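Thread: Newbie trying to understand structure tokens

Hi all, I'm a second-year student working on a class project, and my supervisor (Dr. K.) asked me to get a predicted structure for one chain before our next meeting. I've only ever worked with sequences, so writing a 3D structure as a token string is new to me. If someone could post the tokens and maybe explain what I'm looking at, I'd be very grateful. Here's the chain:
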Amino acid sequence: MSESSESGMGPAGFLRWLYPYLRAYRWQCALILLISLLEMSFNALVPMTFRELIDYALPHRDARALFWMIVALGVGLLIVALSGLARDYFYAQVSSSVLSDIRRRLYQHLQFLSMDFYARSQTGDLLARFSTDLAAIEQSLILTIPWGLVPGLDVALSCVLLFWLNWKLALVAMLIWPLCLTGPRFFAPRASRASYFRKQEEARTATLIQENILAQCTVKAFGLEGLSLERFGQQNTELLKVSSRLSFLTAMMERSAGVGILVLQVLIISVGAFMVFRGRLTIGTLAAFQAIFINLSYGLYNVAQYVPQMIQAGGGMSRIEELLGQLPKITDGPGAAVQPPFQSQVEFRNVSFSYTGNEIHLHDVNITIPRGSSVAFVGPSGSGKTTLLNMLMRFYDVAGGALLVDGHDVRSVTTTSLRAQFGVVFQDSFLFNVSLRENIRLGRPDATNADVEVAARAAEIHDFILTLPEKYDTLTGERGGRLSGGQRQRMALARALLRNPPILLLDEATSALDGATESAINATLSRVARNCTMISVTHRLASAVAADCIYVLEKGQIVEEGRHHELLGQGGVYARMWQKQNGFVMQPQHERVHVEPAWLRRTVPLLAALDEELLSEISGAFVTEVFPKGRHVVYQGDPGDKFFIVVRGTVEVIREEAPGSERRLAVLQDGDYFGEVALLQNTTRNASVRTLTAAVFLCLQRGQFLGLIDRVPALREQMIEAIRAREQTPGAKSATSQQSLSV
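---
Reply by user tm_fold:
Sure, no problem. This is what the structure looks like when written as tokens:
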């Protein structure tokens, strides 16, 4: 973040930033200025009549002069009132249009920022730019006319009239400038910084509130209300501190100006009275002078009160400018061509990539995918599977090598024409809170209703839609909440198929579904894939069995490739993953999962030496537990009294290293396990485990395990010694076992 943004944007900077937006409405602004000048003239005319009334009309009892003065004031009042209505109307249009333009520019800018920006940004912070930051600018614009423009013009004309009435007394009156402006000049920079920091804290508070609302299921299930209140209390205290500082600084700006005005009013009356007493000034002139000076004083005071509002708006404007200053990393190059319809092949040629610039996530990947083929990328979490799809869709650009579609480097064609080649189904496909028809139509906005129904039939969701009371006009709810996981994925598939894409991309499209739903959707995908090239990413090997070619990634490199039976025969990474994921018998809806004793023997080293009878009893002691997405399975510091096997789903292992600061240690998926040492030793969890998708676990309590193995004398001590030996062996620690993480 730049120094200028950290210090906020002062009033002058705010006006400079706003000028281009106002320039688009220059004719309306010119009319507003003209009417404001008219009002300013009338405001000056009223005090000037005091001199004529007191020195001439009233002493000479000139009824005619008195009549015309009153008429002139009445007519002027009527003209100013009517023209003021017109000015308010035009200004309401201009200010609303300026806010609309800023809001549209912000929203438009967000559409073109690259995925790396969203990966490092917080939703609450982005929403705050549209809410609190824009609200501060809106409030400043609303007050511009009554608290800024008109008082500012009054001040300028009042200074001229004071010198015209009596230049000597006017020189005394000009002391108002240093007395009124010194304080605001001193406090304004500090208030600007305080305003910016308050906007930052407001954004953090909004993010915390949003997170809490989305996590209410977890909060209530684990009794986290107290912890949530504590975290909010800490953040609220930080917001209180910066808000109090800003309020105090703005109050000091206003008070310093007000004190200066009061001092000058007393001084003007004193000096003016002395001049009248000496015969150097008429009473009428003094009355007019005092009235104009009061007008000047109120004008300055209003401007002084408006400056803090501009400072707060400047703080919001700094954050908006900060966002607008973000540049997309993925842009169309000069002379970028239109990608022709897909004809022959996709090629990854010596592709390398790093998200951070330090750690390599893909290294020297060479893959050719012919048109009409079906390929799958599989491998452990973090191996680079999804990164390949991100490269292909040009969410990110390759760091080395080239990615070619029909021989065209994806960096040499427009992103719009490139992405038009793809239909995409993500793991967590987003559905908007509009009708089912409109959600599908997003795949091709110009599609007819008949086209939408054809796509729904292909995705095998049409019959279900017809059972709904409002059929295709049914609203999906927020994020598709009225539909099941399988129905949401079929909707996403229909949306992708509506594009009639030559290439269908599947990013863990079925991994969050139960086994029966996964099998049904895989069958649907097999049918629709006959008409296109299908590229899928999955950690669920069951979804890759039918692929023409399976590419196995490990640490960003292709380590194996071939068909399912070929890879099993090689006995490598794929075969080990297959063995790890296959050894569970699931009943419908995951009500009960059984783990085969043979799986325990080959997968969990701690249990490998147990005899068949004991291993079979241990297998029957496991209990099935199901957790929704975003739920903590264990917390750091909890007693380590259970051993967990991830039967299905994805979880993350995280460690809190400081209050509010988490670090991800590992991602576990189907067949991984944790808490091995908890079966033998009374330890505490040194990390938390949280679900990234809905997940199914098998759990074994320490008490049950010890009750079984205690039947065999010395077996428990032998197992503890085996764990100690592995811990002391270099390279023996695993990110997925209790040996490295006491979770």
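A couple of things are worth pointing out once you decode it. DSSP finds 25 helices and 22 strands in the chain. The mean pLDDT is 78. Feel free to ask follow-ups in this thread.
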